[in-house]
Amino acid sequence: MLLENLDGRRRAGSGGREAAGRSTPSGPVVVVTGASAGIGRAVAVAFGREGWRVALIARGRERLASAARDVEQAGGQALVIAADVAEANALEAAAVQVVSTWGRIDIWINNAMASVFGPVTDLSPDEIRRVTEVTYLGQVHGTLAALRHMRERDRGTIVQIGSALSYRSIPLQSAYCAAKFAVRGFTDSLRSELRHEGSRIRLTMVQLPAVDTPQFDWARSHLPRRLQPVPPIHEPEPVAEAIMRAALDAPREMWIGGPTIQAILGNMVAPGLLDRMMARRAWEGQMTNGPAGTREGNLFDAPPGDPGIRGRFGARSRRHVPAVSGATARGILAAVAFGCAAGALAAAWRLGAQRTAVPARRLPERERAARMIG
Predict the structure, then answer these.
(1) For residue 306, how many C-alpha atoms fall within 13 Å in the half-sphere facing its CB?
(2) What is the pLDDT of residues 135-145, one digit of tens each?
(3) CA-CA distance, 175 to 40, in Å (whole number)?
C-alpha cells in the first residue's frame, strides 16, 4: 500500500542511499526523456540528489547542458543525449549509448510530451499527428529501446508518465488526452505480456495532476488567452519526488495529487456528470485573463532559451502532494461502495421486518374484539 504526503523534502533514510551512490563508481543508472525542463528535469535532479547516474534525453541542447549541470550539482553524474523521442532509431541509439557508457539501464522514465491547445475543429492533421508521435509513440519507442537491454539482464523498471487525463479527457486538449489514453492501453498490454513471460522487468505508470511547468508558455495554442494548467496547480519538485518513489517501488500505478485521485475515481462512478463539469470548468480553467494569439510553440522545433523546471504559477502552486497507488485507491472506493450497499440492505431488512411485525401484533387484538362482540 502506498499512501503518503510528499512535500519535496528528502525522505527520511535517503541519506544512506545517497552516500552509497556517490561513493560507488558503478552506481545505478536512470534514463529520463523530456529531461531538459519541467517535470523531466525535476525528476533528473531528484535522482542526482540520490547519487544516481542520469542520462538526459531531449531535443534542446542548451537546456540539456543546463539540466546536466543541475544533476551534477545535486550529486549525480549526467550524460546528455540530444534526440527526438518521435524517432524510434534515435531512442534505440540513445539506449545503446547509455549501456556502452555505463554498462546497464536500471530505470527508464518515459516523460517527453507535446500538446496543442484548441477545439478539435481548429486542429490540423499535422498537429494531431505530431502530438501522437511525441506523447504516445515517444513512450512506445522508449519502452522498446529499454526492453531490448533490460531483457538481457531480466531486470529493470520502466516508468510511463501519464496524467489524470489518461482516464478523464478534457476539452481543448483532445490530441494530448487521446495519446495519454493510448499509453495506458499499451502499458496494460505489455504488463500482461511480461507477466506471461515470467519476466522480472517491472512496469509502472504514474498519473499526474496539473503541475507548474514552462510548457504553458511554449505549447502551441489556438486559444485567445494565455494558457494555464487547470487549477489546483502543484509544484514540480514534490511531484518529481513521488515519481522517483514510484520508480523505486514500482506499483502497478501511482496517482499523484488529490485532483488526480478525484478525477479517476469520479470518472469510474459518474462519467456523465464529469462531462458536464468539464464542459463548464475545464474550458475556462485552461486560460488566464491575459490575451495571447496563435503561436508556433514547441510542437515541431525546440524553443530557444532555458526556462528551467518551474513555470509562472509559483504563487498559486501547492507544495504538498498526496500520492496513492491505484490499487489502494480502488480498494478504498470498493470498500466505501460495499459499506453503502451493506447499509442499504440492512436498512431495507429492518424496514421489511417492521412491516411484517405489525399485523402479527394486531391479530390477537382483533380476535379478542370479535369474541367480545360475539
Answers:
(1) 12
(2) 999 999 999 99
(3) 21
Options 52, 102, 136, 176, the catalytic residue:
176
CB crowding 206-227: b at 16 or more within 10 Å, else e: bbbbbbbbbbbbbbbbbbeebb
Q: Can you name the residues that pair with 33 across neighbouring β-strands? A: 57
Measured CA to CA, the distance from residue 266 to residue 268 in angstroms comes to 5
Cα torsion for 42, 47, 48, 54, to the nearest 10°?
-90
Sign of CA dihedral 102, 103, 109, 110: positive
Closest CA to 36 of 222, 231, 238, 218: 218
Quote the pTM value.
0.83
What's the pLDDT tens digit per position in 228-263?
999 999 999 999 999 999 999 999 999 999 999 999
C-alpha of 20 from chain center: 29
Q: Is 167 considered catalytic here?
A: no
User: How many angstroms separate the most distant Cα atoms in the chain?
Assistant: 108
> Do residues 32 and 81 lie in contact, with contact meaning Cβ atoms separated by under 8 Å?
no
HSE value, Cβ hemisphere, 13 Å, CA-based, for 25 = 2
Asked if 328 and 3 touch (Cβ cutoff 8 Å), the reply is yes
Taking the C-alpha atoms of residue 224 and residue 220, their distance in angstroms, rounded to an integer, is: 12
Name residue 233's beta-bridge partners: 317
List, in order of start, the domains of the chain with CATH numbers: 3-340 (3.40.50.720)
The span from the CA of 246 to the CA of 15, in Å, is 18
Q: 72 to each of 108, 209, 267, how far by Cα in Å? A: 19, 28, 42
Cα-Cα end-to-end distance for the chain = 74
